[in-house]
Write a structure and sequence with these properties.
This protein is an alpha+beta fold. The protein has 2 helices and 11 strands, in the order E-E-E-E-E-E-E-E-E-H-E-E-H. The longest helix has 41 residues. The N and C termini lie far apart (52 Å).
Length: 201
């Protein structure tokens, strides 16, 4: 996959709201990434995020957005209003809501009611591996990313660009695998011919 291509991944989470009375803060929090959880991109093609994938990107200045819209910034790590932590389960985010921001307060109310409980994250893939399994399916394991943003989203769907990029990878890898098998078969036949010819001398 093109390492310079920004992509997003999304899934149903368990986002919750919390009101911290002492700090007078309203908070949205939950897991924005779950490790070792296969997501089906299309039939027979899967992807998962490995533990450690975010270890080298946590110093980035990361934003929390609404529906990946850069005009709707909820919080930011540099400002201390977004806190991201990694544990064995995944990447956990804590967003402190600006009560003077109408969009943020509306979102808080929607999460509180359970109308919105899903999330996504935007990143570049730096390292990954592909497993072409015996059952004909393929699984990519992403082991290192450059994280840019996390989003609370209404409909967590893979962007067409991300899926198409994966499909291009898949078709290219499938063609390379086919060519490799053809080459191996050709070499095997050539070796058999040589062995047979030698045995006749």
């Amino acid at each position: 996959m093109d390492r310079t291509e920004f992509t997003t991944r999304a899934f149903k989470s368990d986002l919750k709201v919390r009101e911290e009375v002492e700090q007078e803060e309203k908070v949205i929090e939950g897991y924005f990434v779950i490790f070792n959880s296969e997501t089906e991109l299309w039939e027979g093609a899967f992807e998962e995020i490995a533990p450690g994938a975010f270890d080298e990107t946590m110093e980035n200045d990361i934003r929390a957005l609404i529906n990946h819209d850069t005009k709707l910034v909820l919080a930011r790590t540099k400002a201390g209003t977004l806190t991201l932590t990694i544990d064995d389960k995944g990447l956990y985010g804590r967003i402190v809501i600006n009560d003077k921001d109408v969009d943020a307060m509306n979102l808080y109310a929607r999460v509180q009611r359970g109308d919105v409980d899903q999330c996504s994250f935007g990143f570049n893939i730096l390292e990954e591996s592909a497993d072409f399994r015996e059952d004909g399916t393929t699984k990519w394991t992403i082991s290192k990313v450059d994280l840019h943003e996390v989003s609370v989203v209404t409909f967590p769907a893979y962007e067409d660009t991300g899926v198409q990029a994966r499909k291009r990878d898949f078709e290219k890898a499938k063609e390379q695998s086919l060519q490799s098998r053809k080459k191996a078969l050709k070499e095997k036949l050539q070796h058999a011919k040589t062995t047979y010819a030698t045995s006749q001398d």
